[in-house]
Structures are given as C-alpha cells and as structure tokens.
Amino acid sequence: MTKNANASERRHRIVARKPVTVMVREKLVCPYCGNDEEFYEVAENAYVVVHFLQNEDGTFVPVEENMEVAGLVKFYCGRCQADLSHLRDKF
User: Fold this and answer.
1) Under DSSP, is residue 90 helix (H, G, I), strand (E, B) or coil?
2) What is the per-residue pLDDT across 33-76, written as a single tens digit (0 to 9) for each?
3) Extended beta strands in 13-89, E state
4) Which pTM value belongs to this model?
5) Distance (Å, rounded) from C-alpha 71 to C-alpha 46?
6) Nearest CA to 78 among 41, 46, 38?
7) Is the separation of the CB atoms in 67 and 48 below 8 Å?
8) Cross-strand pairs, 67
9) Which residues of 5-37 are buried (b: 16+ CB within 10 A; e: fewer)?
C-alpha cells in the first residue's frame, strides 16, 4: 500500500537554541541553629522621618515615611540572634 507523501506525512521543525541559565536561590539557613524562616536586620545611625496628618478627633495618621541609613546594617538570626551579616550578600 502506497501512501501519499504530502497527505499523511507529518513534519516537525526543530529549532536548536542556546542553553538558558536559570538562577535558583537556595534558602538561607542559620549555621548555628538551623533556622530558615526568621531573620531581622539592625540599622545603625538610621534617620526616620514620618509625615502625619491630624484627624478632626485629634488622632494622627501616618502619610509618608522616609528612612536614611548612615551606618552599618547587620543581619541576625531570629531564633538564636547569631550575627549572620556575612551571609547577607547571598540574598
């Protein structure tokens, strides 16, 4: 049995592309206690300016907040309070 070459033959076009590098971030883990969820930063010499509007009843509502950090920013584990500033550059 002969098949019609144009009617039943499927053709696929394959395009070869360069491999794509995908950045995958690993979770940061405290090397001292194994914590991988809770962390905090402490900024030294930080200036915080908050603009408020006063309501009719005398209460204040913050409208805008600006912060300027003039000193070091340290990164700590939220469970064992270990200084992890050297790991901060990873994220």
Assistant:
1) helix
2) 999 999 999 999 999 999 999 999 999 999 999 999 999 999 99
3) 39-43, 46-54, 60-69, 73-77
4) 0.57
5) 7
6) 38
7) yes
8) 48
9) eeeeeeeeeeeeeeeeeeeeeeebebeeeebee
